[in-house]
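At this stage, I wrote out one protein, both as residues and as discrete backbone shape codes, and that material follows here.
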Amino acid sequence: MNTTEHAQQTRLLTLAELAACIKLFREMRQWSQEQLAAISGLNVRTIQRVEQGLSASLDTRRALARAFEFEDIDALNKPFTIPSGEEFKAAKEKFDREHVTLTATPLTTGKQLAKLAESCTMDLSEPGFELPREADETFAALVDYFRDYRDCADVYSETQKFEVYDEMQSHIDALKALGVSLRYATRKVQVKWGADADAKPMPATVLYVVGFPLGEEPKQFATPKSAGIRL
């Protein structure tokens, strides 16, 4: 038996082990307890109880598995291969290599978003939690609008831009009324355009626009370094 096999055990997680795993998974993603609650559909008190090792029902474990995008939503209700300390460390290092942590800056005005659209090359915009249908449609409409504006911002006169600011503001206000608060971040990247493998990478600016539950906005969020960025 090798060292790895000896270090691993396959059994149901104890409440203390579940608590440690959930806290680790959450912190790896730079999520607050409030954000995990919103993403999982649980309340904050439930997240706190789980992380304190107090209780976790079958449905709670399923909700957490969905939040962390487990392929098997019953994974936390089944015998689990307990990773060693070294494996936990390796998983954390792998996550850090594959993700970047960005500062979540409040996005509150249409003019602010328009200026960001003008300065970015591409974007990755999505809700940070499951939105109700009306909020989801409003968020999508805002993203469509600022992408359209980004593609042709140079044809607008300075006077015409005020109409753009107002339209974007109306979407932002509608989202706030529906309990969604926007945060943004920007990131400098190098991008190869076209199919030529020898093409020289060109600098580009990625804009991230993310919706969070109003009053539960994080100070930071983690995102994959390589993701489905929209040109």
Summary: The chain has a mean pLDDT of 86. Residues 102-224 form one domain. DSSP finds nine helices and eight strands in the chain.
